[in-house]
Design brief:
This protein is α+β, with helices and mostly antiparallel strands. It contains 12 helices and 13 strands.
């Protein structure tokens, strides 16, 4: 079953989404970062008695209050796997910072808060509480713990869960039951590993700061004179603290800005619909004012000068087009002139 805001009038999109999410995921209150521009999509399916809900959404904050928790379904807990973007969750005094591939457990019978980044995509697996407790005992000690795929068991489980929504509708009932049991065993294995380890050393506060700094950078990336202190201020911290938080990931505010600008320029150079734009136009648009500096940094990041990178892509496209016997693309349109 698929729900999307795409065909809903803009003024009604968020209210529609909130209603769908409460019905298919969990009761909560939420607030979008930008209501007029809000977009989201939700797909629900099932693997035997395990509910699967995939959803993507624009940036927003959510609150599952004490009242919501008091009326939640006691029979299930939620395994959350982040597929894209970032999500910060807080439950039982612990914060879980989820990036792509990371997982955590949420207990619907306890309050929690969450903050989704832009372009977030999440898979929620609804798991029978009592069967998971049969593996692990009480679950309170393992809620809101970040499970990162750097460990073999967690990486395997994360990849396994990511595949489920694509296959469940094609599986026979007997296959679904067998894979459902494997899913529970893998989840229990990951949570048991987390229960036996110390909490992550990086503070949850710093993780939240990193997400906010990155969001502030994305929002103002095109500004040529983007000021580092204003980025930190938008995240609600000093520049020194912002850099200290990013240092946990071996980067800094200025480095993130440069990396994101280069990535945007590379994407524009790869886009056939932007062939009419010059390299310098693209670079200026994403905040570079010195073309020599831009060319040097682009080559350091991607191995070629921007013009060489674009030329190689165009030659590859022309070769593929010729092999397929199709008219060549010019500026994003077909060239139908006689030769």
């Amino acid at each position: 079953m698929v729900f999307s805001t795409a065909d809903v009038p803009r003024r009604n999109r968020f209210d529609y989404w909130h209603s769908v999410a409460c019905q298919n995921v969990i009761q909560h209150d939420s607030k979008p970062r930008c209501r007029p521009e809000f977009q989201a999509e939700l797909r629900s399916s099932a693997l035997a008695d395990l509910g699967l809900v995939e959803f993507s959404n624009a940036a927003m904050a959510v609150v599952h209050s004490a009242d919501h928790a008091a009326n939640a379904n006691f029979d299930e807990v939620l395994i959350c796997r982040q597929a894209a973007g970032h999500l910060v969750l807080e439950q039982e005094g612990r914060d879980a910072f989820l990036g792509p591939g990371d997982m955590t457990l949420l207990d619907p019978c306890l309050p929690y808060r969450g903050e989704f980044s832009a372009d977030s995509r999440l898979l929620v697996v609804k798991v029978p509480r009592r069967q998971l407790e049969a593996h692990l005992g009480p679950l309170r000690a393992v809620t809101a713990r970040s499970l990162r795929p750097i460990e073999a068991e967690i990486g395997l489980t994360s990849s396994f869960l990511a595949m489920l929504p694509s296959f469940v509708d094609s599986l026979s009932p007997s296959a679904q039951e067998a894979i459902r049991n494997q899913t529970l065993d893998l989840i229990a294995l990951c949570l048991g590993k987390a229960a036996g380890e110390k909490a992550p050393s990086a503070s949850s506060a710093r993780a939240l700061v990193r997400m906010k700094v990155r969001a502030a950078i994305e929002a103002r990336l095109h500004e040529p004179q983007l000021d580092l202190r204003s980025v930190a201020a938008a995240a609600g911290v000093s520049l020194r603290y912002a850099n200290a938080a990013l240092a946990d990931e071996s980067t800094s505010v200025s480095r993130v800005i440069q990396e994101r600008r280069l990535a945007r320029c590379r994407k524009a150079l790869e886009d056939p619909s932007q062939l009419h734009r010059t390299v310098s136009d693209i670079a200026y648009n994403w905040g570079f004012s010195d073309m020599t500096h831009f060319g040097r940094k682009f080559r350091e990041a991607f191995g070629r000068l921007p013009s060489e990178y674009r030329r190689s892509l165009n030659e590859a496209r022309r070769s593929q087009t010729a092999e397929a016997g199709l008219p060549a693309a010019t500026g994003g349109r077909f060239d139908l002139s006689c030769r």
